[in-house]
Amino acid sequence: MKLTKKAYVALGVAAVILVGGYSAVSLHYQKAFLPHTTVAGVNISGQSVADANTELLKKVNRQKYTLKDNNQTLLTFSGQEAGFSHNFKPLLEKIKKSQNGWSWLGHAFASEQTTKSEDALILNAAGFDKFSTETLEKVNADRKPSENAHINLENHQFDLVKEVYGNTIDAAKFKKAVAHGINQGQATIDLKNDYAQPEVKSTDKQLKKTADQLKTIANEKISYSVNGNDFQVPKEDIQSWLTYNNGTISLDKAAVTKYVYQLKAKYDTFDKDLTFNSTKEGTVTVPAGIYGWSISPADEINALMTEVPKGKDFSRTAVIRGSGTDQKTRSVGSTYIEIDLKAQHMWLYQDGKVTIDTDIVSARPPQVTPTGVWSVWKKERNATLKGKNFDGVSEYASPVNYWMPIDETGVGIHDSPWQPKYGGDWYKEHGSHGCINTPPGTMAKLYDTVSEGIPVVVI
């Protein structure tokens, strides 16, 4: 069928109308947003930038947000209360610039085009921090915090304790959830996935490794030798030294120090009374003197602090300072000098046998010859002994051929050619200022026989 002239005219008119109509609509969308344009939950289709900005600001300014934890409502607040404000205009202009008004028909049949509004958000950081802190204080007030898996050091046992999942809200997750919700215009912000989680779990390889290391160290075999006394450090003592903090194993130095001083109290011989089997008086208690040895605490503390954390069995010989009494028998051994002030007599024992003995003259009262466990700490020929006389004013200077000091005050054993006799009560009127006056011939023999360091027991 052929179209008449009128039909062609009609079609032409219709085409003009359609094209004109499409063009008119397109011109409208040159200044307005295309269909299905949504920003922050508000449909702004067909609106100008100014109109859309006004509507969005009205919406966000009156928008209320509800915090929920699953189905429980925790708090309702506004964006302004949380420290947020908006300026949509730059974002709207950016969106408008990206749209082509001639494509309105395609948009009309397309799905909703939602644009995020982060770029429109103005955040007052101080205000948001204050809101977050105050809100979390209220929300978490009666909640149970999560607990990391850890190693429990109780009663010297090292147990791996599993993590505990609590329900307190994590601060960082809270901020992220709230900011995102406000950005997207979400009326409800659910915090069900924002609990603070344990940072360390029982499956943590490092935690398991640390637990094994603690057990290894706690079961170390430490063999100790203190001047001939051999023993093992009790495991409970080793366990009591161990500390564990933030993944780090260390030793409690105060606990190690306490242990070393316990060893000193048990084994040191310096500054301790001595039970002594004397020649005439039998068993007597002799005051401590300068003769004896002691464990060096600095050396032992440092050694234990260094070696124990390695987790390996080791042997240790204690560092000893000084010299002196045999620890096992608590005696001066079998070679020593004994001076009995009551008997006014001196004996030299060598390997348990008397090799020299002689009467002596000790201090004239009220001067005293100090009792105690001493030692010959120096030998000197042709010395001059000086000091104050008995009047406390005048001074004396006595030359001697043989001089062996035994204590820290200047008392010693020496020859005394000025003494006409020895022993008995002679010392009461003719005694020394404190030294052990010895017959010259015997003193020469004694000097040649003994060595420095020999114990001298004065009772």
Automatic annotation (TrEMBL):
Taxonomy, superkingdom: Bacteria
Gene3D superfamilies: 3.10.20.800, L,D-transpeptidase catalytic domain-like (2.40.440.10)
Alphabetized CDD domains for the sequence: YkuD_like
Keywords, sorted A to Z: Cell shape, Cell wall biogenesis/degradation, Peptidoglycan synthesis, Transferase
Pfam families linked: PG_binding_4 (PF12229), YkuD (PF03734)
Catalytic residues identified in the record: 414, 435
Location of the L,D-TPase catalytic domain: 335-459
InterPro entries: LD-transpeptidase, LD_TPept-like_central_sf, LD_TPept_cat_dom, Transpep_catalytic_dom, YoaR-like_PG-bd
Pathway annotation from the record: Cell wall biogenesis; peptidoglycan biosynthesis
PROSITE patterns: LD_TPASE (PS52029)
Protein name: L,D-TPase catalytic domain-containing protein
Lineage: Bacteria, Bacillati, Bacillota, Bacilli, Lactobacillales
